[in-house]
Amino acid sequence: MPTVRDAISLVRTQNKLLSSDNVISDRAVEKELKNKAIMLIRRETNLRKLWSTSTIFNEIPCLELENVPLSSCCAIQSDEMISRSKYKLPAISEGIYGYLIQWVMNVDKTQNFNYLSKNRYVNYRKMNPTIREVCYFIDNRFLYITQPDVQVISISAYFEDNIPKKLLFPDCECSHKVDYDECKNPLDLQFKCPGYLTDQVITMTTKSLLDSYFRIEPDRTQDDKSDEKRTS
Questions:
Q1: What pTM was computed for the model?
Q2: To the nearest 10°, the Cα dihedral for 7, 47, 119, 126?
Q3: CA atoms within 13 A on the CB side of 164
Q4: For residue 228, what pLDDT band results from cuts at 50, 70 and 90?
Q5: Count H helices, E strands: the chain?
C-alpha cells in the first residue's frame, strides 16, 4: 500500500502543472486525496464492500476510558456512572448504515460491544430500566461504554483524520499499545485506500486541483466584437 507521500507524488507526476515547483503545497494535495478517497470508500461500504478487510481501517488498540455520570450525556435521571473515552476520537466516516466502525472490543479481543445510538439507548433504558445490556454509542466524538467497569477498549474504524499520538500512545501500562515510531512523519503513513480505487482517486484529485488552481477564464474577445457589430 502506498504512503501518503507516494500518493502525492503520483498526483504531481500526472500533470506538469502540478509539479513540485508550483504553489500547490503537499498539504493541499493530501487534503484533496483524502476527500476523494473518503467519497469513494463511503460508496463502497454502502454497497457492503471492504468491511472484512484491513485496507481502510485503523485501530486504536488501547483507548482509555473514565467514569462520568449517565445523566451528563443522556436524558436519564440517574446516579449511575458509565465509561467515556478520556479524549475525543478523530472524525469517523459515516455511510448510510452509520459509522464506519469495524468493531469495538476489550483489549484482549474476547468481548465485542454492540453499537446502539444514544437516542435508542435512552429509549431502551426508559422501557427497560432494570436491564443493563453493555453496548457503546458515540456522542460529540466521545465514545461511551454503558458499563462503568470498562476502563480500556480497542476500536477499529475508518478515521477521516490522523489519530492523535495521545490516543495511540497512552500513559497507561496497556500491553496493546501501537508498536511503531511515534515521531513518524504523517506523510510516511499508509494512504488508506483500496488498491482498486487508488488510480481513480489519483485521477479525480488531479482533475480537481487543475480545476481549482489553473482554471482558465473563457476568452470574451470574440463575443465582445460580435456585440459591437450588432449594435453598430
A1: 0.85
A2: -140
A3: 10
A4: low
A5: 6, 9
**Cβ contact 113:104 at 8 Å:** yes
Residues 6+ apart with CB under 8 A from 34: 160
- The DSSP symbol for 112 reads B
Could you read off the pLDDT of 38-95 as tens digits, one per residue?
A: 999 999 999 999 999 989 999 999 999 999 998 888 888 888 899 999 999 999 999 9
Name the band, by pLDDT with cuts 50, 70 and 90, for residue 144: very high
Helix, strand and coil content of the chain, in percent to the nearest 5, comes to: 35, 20, 40
Q: What pLDDT is attached to residue 166?
A: 87
Give Cβ neighbours of residue 143 (< 8 Å, ≥ 6 apart). 63, 65, 84, 85, 89, 104, 136, 137, 153, 155
Residue 168: band (very low, low, confident or very high) from pLDDT cuts 50, 70, 90: confident
Exposed/middle/buried for 230, CB within 10 Å: 0-12, 13-18, 19+? Answer: exposed
Dist. CA 112–CA 135, nearest whole Å:
9
pLDDT at 79: 84
The grid coordinates of residue 8 equal: 502525492
Cβ-contact 174, 152 below 8 angstroms = yes
The helix-helix angle for 195-213 and 26-46 (nearest 10°) equals: 130
What cell was used for 15? 500533470
The candidate with the shortest Cα–Cα distance to 145, out of 73, 52, 94, is: 73
Domain ranges of the chain: 1-55+192-215, 57-187
